[in-house]
Automatic annotation (TrEMBL):
Belongs to the short-chain dehydrogenases/reductases (SDR) family. This is Cytochrome C biogenesis protein CcmE. The lineage of its organism: Bacteria, Pseudomonadati, Pseudomonadota, Alphaproteobacteria, Sphingomonadales. NCBIfam families: PHB_DH (TIGR01963), PRK12429.1 (NF009093). PANTHER family: 3-OXOACYL-(ACYL-CARRIER-PROTEIN) REDUCTASE, 3-OXOACYL-[ACYL-CARRIER-PROTEIN] REDUCTASE FABG. It comes from Sphingomonas sanxanigenens DSM 19645 = NX02. GO terms for molecular function: 3-hydroxybutyrate dehydrogenase activity.
């Protein structure tokens, strides 16, 4: 059972990350959440995890673009379970892509997972048990135009997960990626205006002709479905699953 273990979830003040934290708490895991937002909103989420599930919930505001802050957060939390989930999107043609946006997407979606693993693996090796789950994306397996930084970061993350799995295979540690299709979260909502602009489309056209166009089920994936897969990967039944990149995308990559 996972009861009494500690999970650190990066980027968990909203969306999929918050769903991971709540789903792990629901099976008795103490959690540390991370991410940006209004202090009062974050405190509300943190305290409701404790109230709803009777576990300890902490918050660490480490910035996923700062490797020293990432290492300090991991060392303070000493997690049994590390969920690398923080991510941002930017939608633009390559020739107009702002260099600082490229750097930020690579830092938050890819490099932060490397720095978090780098700090967490020694802690997990010492315990001979650990679980690392990274939120990749259907965009770790396939591309879409105008998302060069995101697609590059997620393909890179898939490679990092495979490498970390091989390096930890005999240490009781598993490392896997979960690759969702479109999940209805603030990240998706916020890219609609830029996609409207980049493709000269209405909001409805973006929803149906772009977002759900490639998702054969024509339904958004839910954060709770993604979180349930992560909880499964953390359990003993999943100890033989390592180095995998599991799709949960309504058939997008089929
Ligand atoms: P979201 O915007 O709701 O959540 C992103 C989280 O990351 C927030 O908690 C935010 O505060 C945090 N964050 C952003 N920049 C940060 C920084 N510099 N330091 C610390 N935290 C930071 O988005 P989401 O849709 O829940 O995305 C979560 C993950 O799922 C991302 O890696 C995303 O790429 C991936 N994903 C999302 C979808 C989707 O359709 N929503 C699909 C596939 C993959």
């Amino acid at each position: 059972s996972l009861k009494g273990k500690t999970a650190l979830v990066t980027g968990s003040t909203s969306g999929i990350g918050l769903a991971y934290a709540r789903a792990l708490a629901a099976v008795g895991v103490n959690v540390v959440i991370n991410g940006f937002g209004k202090p009062e909103d974050i405190e509300k989420e943190r305290s409701s995890i404790e109230a709803d599930f009777g576990v300890t919930a902490g918050y660490d505001g480490a910035d996923m673009t700062k490797h020293e802050q990432i290492a300090a957060m991991v060392e303070a939390a000493a997690p049994d379970i590390l969920i690398c989930n923080a991510g941002i999107q930017h939608v633009s043609p390559i020739e107009e892509f702002p260099p600082e946006k490229w750097e930020a997407v690579i830092a938050i979606n890819l490099s932060s997972a490397f720095y978090a693993m780098r700090a967490a693996i020694p802690i997990m090796k010492a315990r001979k048990w650990g679980r690392i789950v990274c939120t990749a994306s259907a965009h770790s397996k396939t591309a879409s135009p105008f998302k060069s930084a995101y697609v590059s970061a997620k393909h890179g993350l898939a490679g990092l997960v495979k490498t970390a799995a091989l390096e930890t295979a005999t240490d009781g540690i598993t490392v896997n990626a979960i690759s969702p299709g479109y999940v209805w979260t603030p990240l998706v909502e916020h890219q609609i205006p830029d996609t409207m602009k980049a493709r000269n489309m209405t909001r409805e056209q973006v929803l149906h002709d772009v977002l759900l166009a490639g998702q054969p089920t024509k339904e958004f994936v839910t954060s709770e479905q993604v979180a349930a897969l992560a909880v499964y990967l953390c359990g003993d039944d999943a100890k033989a699953i390592t180095g995998a990149n599991l799709s949960i995308d309504g058939g997008w990559t089929a």
